[in-house]
Amino acid sequence: TEEQERMRRCLHQLERLASLALAGEDKQLEGLLDFKVDAFGSCNNGLATSGCDMDVVVHPVGDGSTESTSAALQALASAASVSGAFLVQSLLLSARVPLLKLV
Prior knowledge:
- By secondary structure, the protein is an alpha+beta fold.
- The chain has helices at residues 2-23, 42-45, 66-83; strands spanning 35-40, 54-60, 88-92, 99-102.
- It has a four-stranded antiparallel β-sheet with strand order 1-2-4-3.
- α1 (2-23) crosses α3.
- It is globular, with a radius of gyration of 13 Å.
């Protein structure tokens, strides 16, 4: 559907933003330069509606600690906000599944 294609494009753009953000970060993110940005919740299970928020998570490819994943989400939140393409609604680092809510 059109909505699924929009989500796919957004995820691709977020992955590119995250790559740029993480490449410029300090040593705490070393080893997390290989990662995957995925949709979570309704955007992942096909229940998203037009105009809904988008929850995203970061999965390190290989070994990655909770701290490095949280740092990666923070870097992504900052990059998404600065890009102007996304509005950061919230950053939930202490959730069971740390995630970033975007609109």
